[in-house]
Amino acid sequence: MGKLKVFDHPLIHHKLAIIRNKETTTKLFRETVDEIGALMAYEVTRDLPTADGEIETPIALTAVKMLAKEVVIVPILRAGLGMVSGIQQLIPTAKVGHVGMYRDEDTLEPKQYYFKVPDTTKDATVLVVDPMLATGGSVTAAIHLLKDAGAQDIRFVGIVGCPTGVDVLKNAHPDVDIYLAALDPKMNEQSYIVPGLGDAGDRLYGTK
Question: Contact, 125 vs 69, CB < 8 A?
């Protein structure tokens, strides 16, 4: 059964306060989302498998441990892109796939418009990233696509979620661990998380 981890760290709390503030500029919002992604990546990757190896330091041969599996970061377009570079700061060898989803105006169901992931995804640890976990529809659909592509070790990394989104994701994919910087109490009638931080995509790219 996948676990839910909500971070309780002073630096993350401080940076959450910045991105929640409606007065925060696009530049500062984007930089802070990037920093939160990096802070979260440390804990998300805590249990990655390692393999024993041997290298030569300037002094002597020594035994070392190195990552045993590739890491693939898969942002859900477009807001998920804002978290990629922060995670790559810690894992510069990570490859990046992309999933594009939009909500059908009639059915309100998520629809795929783009999907491209590395060939190694099926053997990698896959980090699906999206700042918001609101209804859970887009994330759930994206993970279905990744599983169809052969991915087995999948983790969701978000910034702000709500109980509805967590429940939807858990029910659809009980094997996927969920990592959040904050769990807010509810959504409003427009499916925005309350208190949330607004539309993450618009705030990242200055489109509203």
Answer: yes
